[in-house]
Amino acid sequence: MKSYDVYSIGNALVDKEFEVDDRFFIDSGIEKGFMTLIDEDKQQDVLDLLMDRYGLKKRAGGGSAANSIYALSQFGGKAFFSCKVANDEPGHFYMQELGENNVETNLSHEREEGTTGRCLVMVTPDAERTMLTALGISQLVSVNELNHDAIKASTYAYTEGYLVTSPTAHSAVLEMKRVAKQAGVKFAMTFSDPAMVEYFNEGINQFIGDGVDLLFCNEQEAKLWSGENNLESACQAMEKIAKQFAVTRGALGARLFDGERYIDIEAHKVRAIDSNGAGDMFSGAFLYGLTKGYDFETCGKLASVAASLVVSQFGPRLSPEQHKEVLERVGL
């Protein structure tokens, strides 16, 4: 019996969400629909502008892998999350957001001085999310944050593509994968964002290495990574590097590959408000299902329902009660 369903390492970020219009991106010179890394001073300038023009919509704990681990824990899974936050108010807030949700971490109450990572999430009327991220102390995540015993005691080791931007985090992911492989622990990852695939392709392929057990991505990321123009060809390319994978397709649902066959999962029609965290929720719900022994189709249905609830509200996470509602809707 494994102690943890999933061990993960990822960026620890505090999200600040804003409702904006497309004109804002034109005025600010920001590329819509992507995550862009930015320094703290420039981020503060944009934050001041957002606060003045639109006002803060919501603050929440964030980070791609962290959101997935939070979801898994709320469904009833056991998880360990390695990350780095500073000894500041956002760091305390982040610890509270994660610590109250049954996730074990490497963090202690005595943390380093510095600035906790922050992500500005700008949501347009079409529900598209655009992010400006200042990693702060999170860019220093390294092998020092890894817990080898926890990795070995997990069913899956999971990471996010965003870590490819930090040399120390990049090394930590490769070390986590090495330890997991030696211990017979399955390795899963998400591409995270089209920008990671487009601008950090070499690093992403180093994460993939000789292959992964489970890969999560959206359709745009799959096409960018493979260089193919259609989903079918992109999936054929991914079969060569992933034993299993899940491709989310927004309003078109998802396409899954369980290692032998393809399964199409229908989307749930909702009024999309905010796509931030939808992919993270899909991954977290899917991993929960897999670690509980459900088949791919059931995992896909669970993940699809959960993601549909996330996009119908602001913020990347659901409440504990909403997780219970998802399980009931799927009959689990």
Number of strands: 14
Average pLDDT score: 94
Could you describe the largest sheet, including whether it forms a barrel? 9 strands, mixed
Q: Taking strands numbered 1, 2, ... along the chain, how are they ordered across the largest sheet?
A: 6-5-1-9-10-11-12-13-14
Structure in words:
The chain is an alpha/beta fold and 332 residues long. The chain has one domain (4-330): Ribokinase (UDP-N-acetylmuramoyl-L-alanine:D-glutamate ligase). Helix content is 41%, strand content 23%. It contains 13 helices and 14 strands. It has helices at residues 22-28, 40-53, 64-75, 89-99, 148-152, 167-182, 194-199, 201-208, 219-226, 231-238, 278-291, 296-311, 320-330, and strands at 4-9, 13-19, 35-37, 58-62, 79-82, 103-105, 117-123, 129-134, 154-160, 186-190, 212-218, 242-248, 254-257, 262-265. The chain has a nine-stranded mixed sheet, sandwiched between helices. A five-stranded mixed sheet has the order 3-8-7-2-4. A hairpin with a 5-residue loop joins β12 and β13 (254-257). α3 (64-75) crosses α11 (278-291), α9 (219-226) packs across α10 and α11 (278-291) packs antiparallel against α12. The chain starts with a strand and ends with a helix. The model has no long low-confidence stretch (mean pLDDT 94).
